[in-house]
From TrEMBL:
GO biological-process terms attached to the record: glutamate biosynthetic process
Single GO molecular function: glutamate synthase activity
Organism: Knoellia remsis
Span of domain Glutamate synthase: 144-458
Entry superkingdom: Bacteria
CDD domains: GltS_FMN
Database matches in PANTHER family: ARCHAEAL-TYPE GLUTAMATE SYNTHASE [NADPH]
Record's protein name: Glutamate synthase domain-containing protein 2
Length: 514
């Protein structure tokens, strides 16, 4: 009797759905194929999950393949991240496949402890002193060549930001705030790079204008080591940021100084300066007032900006201390599809063009170059270093260390792992204490892998890997040196002689506290 009742209820339910489908006019598929059309919409909805876990090969997915995600997850958990039975990459037929050229007899022998993970914390500082060439009062050498890129509180949950900051502290890395200001979640001991965006969150007055006094108060209230002026980012270059009203909590409203209940749209341009000349004045004013190194972050489009910046810096009276180049493949910011897919150059082309501009002007020793845009994977990181990057900023990979599963729901406030959401129920599932350890493990593992490869190449530090150490393959036919691919002249992409000696000496006798 009970079974008949359930069957009857099911029939009535299906009939009700059929009637609704036949009478509605919004979706022709449902009207033509009542009930069964719902299966199509269900499969469409779970399509990403089907492809991610069942259908796709290890190297098929974008932006991060299953192999790449697995490497990050294993590294974060200190599990075995080795692979067996050879590469499953299509080396024989892939155009542009990257190969790092090792050396048989040269330089330091690879450390067995480092190579096999016995040394849990590899000390791998930056090769340049940030702010040193311009004599900033608080110039410093970054303790880690790998650091956490800008991701704002608001875009990411409080527990996620806390996990990142604590992880940065454990690994001795820098943590960039992103443009969403400096929250309580950033104040867990990790060294901070404070990012100034176009809306001046955290350092603005009641009218939304930049306020130097508030900036000085802010940087004195936390371990802020440098300031980054964001001109644009790879995910949405030339487009201001947008924080949906649904993600604006009272806490975010207080920290940013914005109203509740409406979308928070950042301007696409800065109001404090309007050209290269006024931008350099702004940079010098901020550096003088705070004593901190000050740099810029930008995606790369038209070259005139970079040409003029290099020209105006040549007399060395004014200048940026660092330049962060964000590739067009950058992805932590939600953006319109056309911006995500087609606006701004991808990292390698973008970085090479900017680096060459300053190399021709003889200014590369004056600037710390920072690469950003999917550089948290060892092969991509090594190409960036060979191109001339001095530091690496990573974002999506630490998000995966926090638990991100590449659900690609960052823009919906429905992130299932609590990383990119302000939903309290979803965010509560992320334990910042546990995840901070995984973030630190990931950063340390990436540093260790970079050191493994640099020693295999016969140098003491990955910053000494230059444009002659990398080739791009055209299947099994030819290999073209990186130097030729990007038209680098002799010496470009390499550290100066004095900087090379200094970092080699440091690596041979690291400080006791490392």
């Amino acid at each position: 009797m009970k079974a008949k009742s359930l069957l009857g209820a099911a029939v009535v339910g299906v009939a009700g759905v059929a009637v609704r489908d036949l009478t509605q006019k919004k979706q022709s598929l449902k009207r033509n194929f009542p009930v069964i059309a719902h299966a199509r919409y269900f499969l469409e909805k779970i399509g990403p999950e089907l492809r991610q876990y069942i259908i796709s090969s290890n190297d098929a997915e974008r932006p991060f393949s299953r192999d790449q995600r697995s490497w990050v997850y294993a590294s974060a958990k200190l599990e075995n991240n080795y692979t067996g039975f050879g590469t499953d990459n299509d080396v024989e037929n892939t155009e542009g496949y990257v190969v790092i050229k090792h050396r048989t007899f040269a330089g330091p022998a690879p450390s067995t402890a480092v190579a096999h993970g016995a040394d849990d914390d590899v000390w791998l500082p930056g090769a340049k002193v940030l702010g040193g060439p311009r004599g900033r009062r608080q110039a410093f050498r970054p303790n880690s060549i790998v650091n956490i890129s800008g991701m704002s509180f608001g875009s990411l949950s409080g527990p996620a930001i806390e996990g990142l900051n604590k992880g940065a502290k454990l690994a001795g890395a820098l943590h960039n705030t992103g443009e969403g200001a400096l929250s309580d979640h950033h104040r867990h001991g990790g060294d901070i790079v404070f990012q100034i965006g176009t809306a001046y969150f955290g350092c603005r007055d009641e009218q939304g204008r930049f306020d130097m006094a508030r900036l000085k108060d802010l940087v004195q209230s936390a371990p802020v080591r440098a300031i980054e002026v964001k001109l644009s980012q790879g995910a949405k270059p030339g487009l201001g940021g947008l924080l949906p009203a649904a993600k604006i909590t009272e806490e975010i409203s207080r920290i940013r100084g914005i109203p509740m209940g409406v979308d928070c749209a950042s301007p696409s341009r800065h109001a404090e300066f309007h050209d290269v000349d006024s931008m350099l004045d702004f940079v010098e004013r901020v550096a003088d007032e705070t004593g901190l190194p000050v740099g810029i972050k930008s995606a790369v489009g038209e070259p005139e900006f970079w040409d003029e910046l290099a020209n105006r810096m040549q007399d060395r009276s004014r200048g940026v201390d660092f330049i962060t180049i964000d590739g067009g493949e950058g992805g932590t910011g939600a953006a319109p599809l056309v911006f995500t897919d087609t606006v701004a150059l991808p990292f390698r082309i973008a970085f090479a063009r900017v680096y060459c501009t300053f190399a021709r002007a003889g200014l590369t020793d004056d600037i710390t170059f920072i690469g950003s845009g999917k550089l948290g994977l060892p092969d991509n990181a090594l190409v960036a270093l060979a191109l001339g990057a001095d530091l690496l900023n990573v974002a999506r990979e630490p998000m995966m260390a926090l638990g991100c599963i590449q659900a690609q729901k960052c823009h919906t406030d429905r992130c299932p792992t609590g990383v990119a959401t302000q939903d309290r129920w979803l965010a509560h599932g992320l334990d910042p204490e546990l995840k901070s350890v995984r973030v630190a493990n990931y950063l340390r593992t990436l540093r260790r892998d970079l050191l493994k490869v640099s020693e295999a190449c016969g140098v003491a530090h990955p910053g000494l890997i230059d444009a002659d150490c990398v080739e791009f393959l055209d299947g099994n036919r030819t290999g073209t040196p990186l130097r030729d691919v990007y038209s680098y002249e002799p010496g470009w992409g390499a550290l100066s002689a004095s900087c090379s000696v200094e970092i080699t000496d440091l690596m041979q006798a690291p400080p006791a506290h490392s």
